[in-house]
Amino acid sequence: MKKYIFDFDDVLFNNTAQFKEHMFKLIAEAGVPEGEARAYYAKPEIRGKEFSLRKFIKDLFSFYDLHDSETSIDELYLRIMEESRKFLNTELVEMVKRIGVENCYIVTNGETEFQQDKMKYSGIWDLFGEDKIKIVPRSKREAVIKICTEHSTENVVFVDDKIDFFRDLGEISNLKTILYGENGLEKLRAEIGTNISSELKRRK
Questions:
Q1: Are strands 156-160 and 3-6 parallel, antiparallel or unpaired?
Q2: CA distance 25 to 14
Q3: In the chain, what percentage of residues exceed pLDDT 90?
Q4: Are 3 and 105 spatial neighbours (Cβ–Cβ below 8 Å)?
Q5: Tens digits of residue pLDDT in 26-56
Q6: Which of 81, 108, 125 is the last residue in one of the domains?
Q7: Which of 81, 145, 165, 171 is 20 to 30 A from 21, comparing alpha carbons?
Q8: Can you tell me the distance from the alpha carbon of 109 to that of 157, in angstroms, rounded to the nearest whole number?
Q9: What single string gives the DSSP state of each residue in 21-59?
């Protein structure tokens, strides 16, 4: 049976189009002008490293002197996080269940607390299990190679929405990559369909 490695943001979880919009909406409701929050988020010193939502909120509250507001930093963080289940890519999650979670991994890039909390509140953490989830600060190379090595007699499919994470992998004989872009879901559906058909034939 093939093994699958999935990115989290904008693959299993609709981060950019849905979660971030939800985040900015609640930050604005807490008293930070939305345009200002977006402008601060876009700064290289914020986007150029692992993003921490808790630190982002703390910085905004400090700048706008909102420490005495009705909503605390922790309360706003929780309000943003607790709706994470709404932003799952449900089609893809159903595919994961069809494949079998025992055949799937997550390798995601980002700040540990923020990524863990998104996965926990969305339900993905419990679905996959901690041992199947790797959160890395920058390159995914080491984590992907480790999984491919552990399953050296099987083919591994790595699904990510950013091609840059494929470019530094080098040659890995049992690895196939799928860019989760415009036709990513269709490509993955075809890959999974072939995989399951082959497995059923093998079991007969």
A1: parallel
A2: 16
A3: 77
A4: yes
A5: 999 999 999 999 999 999 988 877 899 999 9
A6: 81
A7: 165
A8: 18
A9: HHHHHHHHHTT--HHHHHHHHTSHHHHTS---HHHHHHH
What the block records as the tokens of 164 is 């840059």
Q: Would the pLDDT of 196 be above 80?
A: no
For tokens 């950013």, what's the residue? 162
Last residue of a domain, one of 46, 81, 116: 81
Tell how far CA 53 is from the center of its chain: 14
Helix (H/G/I), strand (E/B), else coil: 64: coil
Q: Are 161 and 10 in contact (CB under 8 A)?
A: yes
Structurally, the chain folds into a number of domains equal to: 2
Cα–Cα–Cα angle for 77, 38, 63, nearest 5°?
65
Token pair of 122, please? 């969305």
Residue 62: give the domain boundaries. 15-81
Indicate the helix (H) or strand (E) that contains 91.
helix 90-99
